[in-house]
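Quick start: read one record
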Amino acid sequence: MASTSVTANPKVTQAPVPMRFVGPVKISAQAGQYSEGWQDKVSVPLATYEIPLWHSVGRGARLSTLCADGIKTTLVDERMTRSILLEADDASKALAAWQSMQQRQQEMQIIVAQTSRFAKLIDMNMQIVANLLYVRLEFKTGDASGHNMVTQAADKLMEWVLVQYPELNYSSISGNYCSDKKATAVNGILGRGKYVVAELTVPRDLCEHKLLTTPEKVVDLNIKKNLLGTLMAGGLRSANAHFANMLLGFYLATGQDAANIIEGSQGMVHAEVRDGDLYFSCTLPNLIVGTVGNGKGLDFVTDNLAKLGCSADVEAGANARRLAQICAATVLCGELSLLAAQTNPGELMKAHVKLERNAK
């Protein structure tokens, strides 16, 4: 059971959620533009009421330790966003202001630096609808997930914009083009949070003896369930079985804003048969995680981050990048285990009945 220390405010109570460490998970983080390479075996905390989740992720974790490289993780990109909404008299004036702003990003970065030593403006995107100008500001935020950091920076930038461009008027500090805690196409395309790909190659014999299925069955089910099934349901830039389950358990155990599983669970599973073995991957473009900020001062969160190796004295951003890659590997463990179970009639429900009825 997760325990916490909370403020003495009598209005603040606790909502305990069962928590358990599963694993270890074998991870090989790939070196790249956004992350140093590292290898580790990590036991992962998951806080959930769904008891079978621990066992399902645990099965995937055990499998990762038996595979040569374990789960390979690649951090493709990282950014946190806030979109300000401005009004002009007409579309022409909105466009002229935007074109001018694009040429003044260095000046805007100076404004951002006044709000935080970790915030850095890295890009801007826009949409114009009638006389409305939506500006999507994209930032680096160090080890913080960055919600408050980018809003504070956007506030200061908004003040500057309204002085520099008197033809524009304030409409909102957030115009939903961010897009925060909503399932949208823009986040999948442009990214929000950490963009991580996790990959695992499972030898055929391990697939048959540990997952009780074959590479061909997993590939076939991924096409028919995750791809076609999600298409028939009208899914939005998403093709997975249950990313949200692992994300929620991981987010609650590590002090994240749990509402961000909405965009976090927008991800894709891809599977192939390679030389008789199973190649299995999970792509998560919108992992919003941090190792400092709100929620990280709770005792159990502090302990969990330390056990994950995400509280080291390293360069800003390195702890959060490690955490995101551990999270993606955890998602892969649970996703592969569930898909494998669903290739066999009755296996999923038998496991739920057995594990939930016997849960203590």
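The first strand starts at residue 19 and ends at 29.
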